[in-house]
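Lab meeting prep.
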Amino acid sequence: MKPTSAEQIWADFCDRFSVAECAVPLFKASASGRVTTRNHGLDGRTLLCRSEQMESLVRTEAAKAVSDYQAGKQRIDGLIYMMGWRQDQSLIPLYIGKTEVTGRGDRNLSVNLKNLDRDTSKFARWGDGYAYHVGDLSACVVPGHDPRRRQEKYSDWASKLFEQAPTEQPVLRQPVWFWATAWDNRTTGIWQELGPTRLAFLEYTLIGVASMISPDLLNREGRQRA
């Protein structure tokens, strides 16, 4: 039997979960790719704006995780998410991550999933604060941030996603898409032979396969080594 290629394994997973079809724009941007920015109310920092569709998707999927937690079912481990580019009918992965439903070291509901209807500081890891994706990426893309906040990881993101950075007029190289879903631990992951997969293992297996098919993958951990 011919071994299944990494491309086919990835495509099968994306087909099962309609990843490309359900992906939404990550940023609020014009047709030319200019990303809208705004000033953070507390300290005046300039931030990149998430799209309304992205925020709606995160809130919808997070609500499923929170509801499951509050009901004590322990079926949903958290959210799995991807950032990527569209190519034909597929999503080329740029970054894969997760947001677990409980916090580190305890079994309490994670602050990353709390009050997302009114608090975007953490926002399922895509929050406006530093140590979160949008806050740290903004520090590398738009002016007005302490240079010490510019992390190498997000400088890589900025170079990959934007034509120029830092700049007062951030323009995407091409549209950036976002997908997320609340992950039920009874669901089969990307390796179908392994059956039901927990969220933490799903993240690593997705990154491993994605690193074999996408030279632009921005994840630094969990990659397939050459």
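Slide two material, second protein:
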Amino acid sequence: MTLIRVGEVELDYERGGEGPPLLLIMGMSGTALHWGEPFLERLREQFDVIAYDHRGVGASSRLDGAVTIEQMAQDASGLLDALGLQSAHVLGISMGGMIAQELALAHPEQVRTLTLGCTYCGGQGSALADPADLQELVAAMTSGDRERAIRAGWEINVSEGFAREPRPWADFQAIARRRAVAVPVVMAQMQAIAAHDTKARLPALAAPTLVIHGSVDRLLPVANGRLIADQIPGSRLEVLDGVGHLFFWELPERSAQLVSEHATSKV
């Protein structure tokens, strides 16, 4: 990956593939590696794919103190500027979908099409994870037991059946070990998510929008996807039956196809 100066920070990014630019914005506790190679390989067949690590993650600038979704949206906007790109297709998942919402609202000229995956807009009708699930995840993350934390993260992020698949689990473990995200950074990201609320502003969102959500998402229930699609004029909702939060891990080919069809249908 490569460091690039973006305003007050440096962001670590990677870029590859052929086609129009596609900016990938990762979620809470995730890194550019967490998109998974099966999904990335399929996207690179259609797009010039740009994935990066948020401030505080990997080799990107350290995060000292709080961060907001708006700040991270400015980072995404600044990254496009630094790369000399006037606009790009944008895919944001989970916290990255919240960042993508703010990016598209603040800088509509930079967003050709918008895909919002497994994400949340805040406001009345939104739903965060079940408190018991969230408590279990936080306890694992703060336990000091790295393997427990990785396993807890895996199990809440995917469907029950997929969690038992040995190969994806091994890949997820390897990614987590290769590029760990510090607990204070994850806690700061969690606080940013708690303050996020774009619901009342989403009707002003002009970018052609696709919303993707797994039907058995435990981190951000599917009701969030339905609410977001209801708020954005002309948007389309794709619910993936029996799929958890990391839909692009469970169905990489189908997920890449949805992103590609959405982008090409709006050219």
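Talking points for slide two:
Residues 17 and 255 are 17 Å apart (CA to CA).
The chain is about 40% helix and 20% strand.
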